[in-house]
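Mods, move this if it's the wrong board.
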Amino acid sequence: MRLLCVAALALLLSGCGDTAPEVDAAMVTSAQRRWPATNAQELAAGRQLLTMRCTACHELRGPQRQDEAGWQKYVTLMAPNAKLNDAEKQALLRYLLVGRERLLTPAK
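Not the wrong board. Structure tokens:
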């Protein structure tokens, strides 16, 4: 029983390092520097796709886990399995890239 509890705790803690940051004004501003028409709703939709659709089959992989090329490749590869349309792919990828920047940039 003790071993089972230790194994369950280890499994629970193994995913604690990843997060999907909430969309805020700074993320929208950052996204708009690259993609001027991006808005908070699009980024929030991308976050929702990550936290709901992607995690239906996978553990949450925080945006900091891949570089830009890696996310582009991964989203392109997984989009058919997740049944993402072009707008959803765009929203997810933009959220991942802006979220990555947010998580890797030290707070000022």
